[in-house]
From TrEMBL:
Keyword annotations: DNA damage, DNA-binding, Repeat, WD repeat
Superkingdom per UniProt: Eukaryota
Stored Gene3D superfamilies: YVTN repeat-like/Quinoprotein amine dehydrogenase
Species the sequence originates in: Aureobasidium subglaciale (strain EXF-2481) (Aureobasidium pullulans var. subglaciale)
SMART domains hit by this protein: WD40 (SM00320)
InterPro entries for the chain: WD40/YVTN_repeat-like_dom_sf (IPR015943), WD40_repeat_dom_sf (IPR036322), WD40_rpt (IPR001680), WD_repeat_DNA-damage-binding (IPR050853)
Record's protein name: DNA damage-binding protein CMR1
Disordered as annotated region, ranges: 37-79, 216-235
GO cellular component entries: nucleus
Length: 523
């Protein structure tokens, strides 16, 4: 077919050809400029000799990427754009992608053996017993110093301040080297043992990291076959288990069995990890897998080994009988708030009393002995206190005090030490619900830092109650139950906010985790 003359070409075609010519000219000019600047592509390197090939390091094995449904070309299939067929094809592809995403986040109900869920590149003791003895933030600016430690005249307080301020970062590895979880840390704690520091951390995508601080760093290893190779840095031994499909929001070691850890997750389930047998079983989940009930907290009373208590992001509070068979009714679920419950805490000595902190700005106290009637049965609310902004968490200590952290940039301490004398149905007065101490504290974590929570030492070895909380200036603050600051812990190598801080229940050990999954440990 003869080519059309310029006069016969449409205005669109003339413009298209002109653009093509301009782009080709520009490309040639860029190639000339790159060649003159020495940036042109180099010729392929000559094949390495056999000796050089022997020195080459073995390729690093990478985790196989998850295969997602692939998009296909409508043009190659002859499907006309904006047609009914094209719309149906787009809808089908969108549904396939949505199904893949749902499957990735769907909880798994079967028992999980640790050897099957260990994350690639991490270790697990194959014998199955891990417990064998073996304002705007201003990073780096201190608000509590050695001078503050010396100023007090209280002998007991001064001695405790000196002891807490003298805690040092664990010397084995810098915090930047101890990546205990693959993703952002949301929950963290110590195993109750006092023989060594065993730290557990749960992350954003459902992985649980285990770090043993009794390990000794190995010496650096040099590759003798290659004089030019660098020394390989020693790395800490960390076990990482993928036990949930979504965020691990909280966990607690059973007060009745130190080998049992209960973990709560946004995938709506609670798992019981048996650290001696090396297996994780589903202790609780909604009967239907379609029910989405992300969990924000889990606790077990020291007086009842068969009941789990939990809270949800949907404003619910539940208790579950662990003796009930899967798929049967063994759970009571109560709606306590129209908004997210960020956390709850049982009174250690009187577990029928519990506290919730929620997005509706309230700390509320409840009594499980009194169930009120209405549209739905629920525990009796016996007291409430409103903050200016949302309350992130509430935690009881052994003396009956509660510490909360709020987005109004305060840590509030309430005194409920008289809870043992409360009658059923008591209504707490406004004075009883007023904080005994208010501590100014920057709690503006933003989007990328895990919410700050005040966490008590559950069994202090002296008469002074104390708690720790992350500091946006990349420290961890330690306070007494009456608001006196004891220490501000930091150190070299802390490159992010240690936002998730936790005391060992009886030892003066403090651990904290960052948004990059790194661990800071003071002992």
């Amino acid at each position: 077919m003869p080519k059309k003359s310029a006069a016969e070409l449409s205005e669109y075609e003339l413009q298209r050809q002109e653009n093509i010519a301009k782009n080709q000219a520009l490309l040639r000019q860029l190639q000339l400029e790159a060649a003159s600047a020495g940036l042109a592509p180099k010729k392929p390197a000559r094949p390495a000799s056999n000796n050089a090939a022997k020195k080459r390091k073995a390729p690093v094995q990478r985790i196989k990427e998850e295969v997602q449904p692939r998009r296909t070309s409508s043009r190659l299939k002859g499907i006309v754009a904006d047609s009914e067929v094209a719309r149906r094809k787009a809808e089908e592809e969108s549904e396939l992608l949505a199904q893949a995403e749902r499957a990735k986040r769907q909880r798994v109900s079967a028992d999980l053996r640790f050897s099957d869920v260990v994350v690639a590149g991490k270790d697990w003791d194959q014998s199955g017993n891990f417990l064998r003895i073996v304002g705007p933030a201003n990073p780096g600016e201190r608000t509590f110093s050695a001078q503050d430690v010396k100023e007090t005249t209280d002998t007991e307080l001064k001695e405790l301040r000196e002891r807490m301020s003298n805690l040092d970062l664990w010397q084995g590895f810098e915090p930047s080297r101890i990546k205990i979880t693959p993703e952002r840390i949301y929950s963290l704690g110590f195993h109750p043992t006092t023989e060594k520091a065993l730290v557990f951390a749960g992350d954003k995508l459902g992985s649980l990291g285990l770090f043993d601080a009794s390990q000794q760093p190995t010496s650096t290893i040099k590759n003798e076959d290659d004089d030019e190779s660098d020394d390989e840095e020693a790395t800490p031994s960390i076990t990482t288990l993928k036990i949930h499909t979504r965020t691990i929001s909280a966990f607690q070691f059973s007060p009745h069995d130190q080998n049992a850890l209960y973990s709560a997750s946004y995938d709506s389930s609670i798992r019981k990890l048996d650290l001696q047998k090396g297996v994780a079983i589903e202790a609780y989940a909604p009967i239907s897998k379609d029910d989405d009930e992300p969990l924000s907290g889990v606790e077990m009373s020291q007086f009842d080994p068969n009941t789990l208590f939990f809270s949800t992001l949907n404003g619910n509070f539940g208790r579950h009988d662990t003796r009930s068979k899967p798929g049967t009714s063994g759970t009571n679920l109560y709606t306590l708030s129209e908004k997210k419950i960020g956390g709850f805490s049982l009174h250690p000595a009187h577990p029928h009393i519990f506290a919730t902190a929620s997005l509706d700005r309230y700390l509320r106290i409840w009594d499980l002995r009194m169930l009120k009637d209405g549209k739905e049965e629920a525990p009796m609310e016996i007291g409430a206190h409103e903050s200016r902004l949302s309350v992130s968490h509430a935690a009881f200590n052994s003396a009956g005090q509660i510490a909360t952290a709020s987005y109004d940039d305060t840590v509030k301490i309430y005194d409920f030490s008289s809870a043992g004398s409360w009658d059923k149905g008591v209504e707490l007065s406004e004075d009883q619900m007023t904080p005994s101490t208010i501590i100014p504290h920057n709690n503006q974590t933003g989007r990328w830092v895990t919410i700050l929570r005040a966490q008590w030492q559950l069994q202090p070895q002296d008469s002074i109650q104390r708690f720790c909380i992350g500091n946006m200036n990349r420290f961890v603050d330690v306070y007494t139950g009456d608001g006196q600051q004891l220490a501000q812990l930091g150190g070299e190598g802390i490159t992010a906010v240690p936002s998730v801080a936790q005391f060992h229940q009886s030892q003066d050990w403090i651990a904290a985790g960052t948004a990059s999954g790194k661990l800071c440990l003071w002992m």
